[in-house]
Design goal:
Strand order of the largest sheet: 2-4-5-7-6
Shape: globular
Structural class: alpha+beta
Radius of gyration: 21 Å
Largest sheet: 5 strands, mixed
Helix content: 40-55%
Bound molecules: adenosine-5'-diphosphate
Oligomer: single chain
Order of helices and strands: HHEHEEHEEHHEEH
């Protein structure tokens, strides 16, 4: 039995080491890609493209977008590292998850309308409060809703359902988008894991949105589940512990 334990320990350690190496390689690659683009556009500008106003404007826009992407990536990495090191200062309060969700919907409404997508929100009037960090819950909703928006084509539908059941608040984000192949689902919460790297990049993704969402939801004692079918759509379900109404009256 001792031998088996030793054997398992080593493989576990190796697995962690491999994950670490893969992570560092991913980070380097993700940072180098926008840097290479920025560098080559700047060089072209320096060597004369600046004189043609329209082209120069176009190039600057690309540089601006790539800088934004790098900022997003670095911010996401910092957030993950804080979550990993338990350095997050949680600002826990009793909050209404429905309010937070509606806030996020309002922020994304313009984008959704521009893509001719239809957003259908279904929620009871009153939802039990959750004990949570409002900004971070908002970030989770934002990450998941923006995925639904990004990976659903023009004219598609996004359904948001809020339910209160058995001391949990359940929030479902369902879209009629491109879906995720069954074989990718088990790895979808891994850092940098994407079904299609090129597509994710075109959409401005970093491949970290779902892993951050998972860390945050689990830190709240909740669960995040995903189900999907290619060509049909994706459903991400959040289950967050609710605070019973009787507990809040104090
Ligand atoms: P990204 O920044 O690439 O969107 P995420 O961590 O948020 O990173 O998601 C990981 C991957 O999961 C995405 O690259 C995409 O392939 C897939 N994905 C996430 N949400 C959806 C969705 N609603 N529909 C289809 N694919 C999705």
């Amino acid at each position: 039995v001792g031998h088996i334990f030793v054997f398992q320990d080593i493989t576990k350690q190796q697995r962690l080491e491999n994950m670490r190496k893969e992570f560092v390689a991913n980070v380097s690659h993700e940072l180098r890609t926008p840097l290479t683009t920025i560098k080559s556009y700047v060089e072209t500008l320096i060597s004369g493209a600046m004189d043609e106003k329209e082209i120069a404007q176009q190039f600057m826009n690309v540089i601006n977008d790539e800088t934004d992407r790098m900022t997003r990536l670095v911010n996401n990495l910092l957030e993950l590292s804080r979550l990993d090191n338990k350095q997050v200062k949680w600002d826990m309060k009793l909050i209404d998850a429905k309010d937070v969700l509606i806030n996020v919907v309002n922020k994304m409404d313009m984008n959704i309308k521009r893509k001719n997508q239809i957003l259908i929100v279904n929620t009871p009037d009153k939802v039990p409060e959750i004990f949570a960090d409002r900004d971070r819950i908002e970030q989770v909703f934002q990450n998941i809703l923006s995925n639904a928006y990004k990976y659903t084509p023009e004219g598609g539908k996004i359904y948001l359902d809020v339910e209160a059941a058995d001391n949990i608040v359940r929030i479902k984000f369902r879209d009629t988008g491109i879906g995720i192949p069954k074989e990718d689902l088990p790895r979808i919460f891994e850092r940098f894991y994407r079904v299609d790297k090129t597509r994710s990049r075109e959409m401005g993704g970093t491949g970290l949105g779902l892993s951050i969402a998972k860390e945050i939801i689990e830190a709240h004692g909740g669960k995040i589940l995903i189900d999907s079918e290619v060509g049909v759509g994706t459903t991400v379900t959040l289950e967050i512990p609710a605070v019973a109404a009787t507990q809040t009256i104090k």
